[in-house]
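Suppose a colleague, Dr. K., hands you the sequence of a protein chain of 173 amino acids and asks what its three-dimensional shape might be. Before reaching for any lab equipment, you can write down a predicted structure in token form. Begin with the sequence itself:
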Amino acid sequence: MRPRPLIPREDLARRVRELGGSIARDHDRDHAGRPLVLIALMDGAFCFAADLVRSIDLDDLTLVFHPVRSYRGTESTGTVACEPLSGLAGRRVLVVDDILDSGRTLATVLAAVARAGASSASSCVLLDKPMRRVDAGQATADYIGFTVPDVFVVGYGLDHDGRWRHLPDVCVI
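The predicted structure, expressed as tokens, is then:
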């Protein structure tokens, strides 16, 4: 099984720069002078988050990686394992994830951010699969890189049981 490109690295780079610009402009407009905490969901969002944080032109920006698990192989387990968050009281938070699929992970993490006392929270995902939403899931994200069909994707941090994360393009297997 050889992955085939779905979104080439050049398109990823261009769109990530656009997202970073939008996030910085919106933050300056609505929260000027306040720090922004990016919470990157591990492990899949690490490439996206690294490129995104370099594209957000803000003076006070913190990047935190937070482990979350919901997949085994190519299937969602239906549950989300998320450790409690701390140190967010009164902070402005942007949750960064690789893919918005069922919506369970994003809903779980945004609820944890609220429980941790963040003053506000928004979300940014690289990929969106709206046809996969479930009733208990987050319906959408505030910032979306690409909407993709209902296929299993790897590369640019996304994996299949730990494989294919290193690919520079988002690919279909």
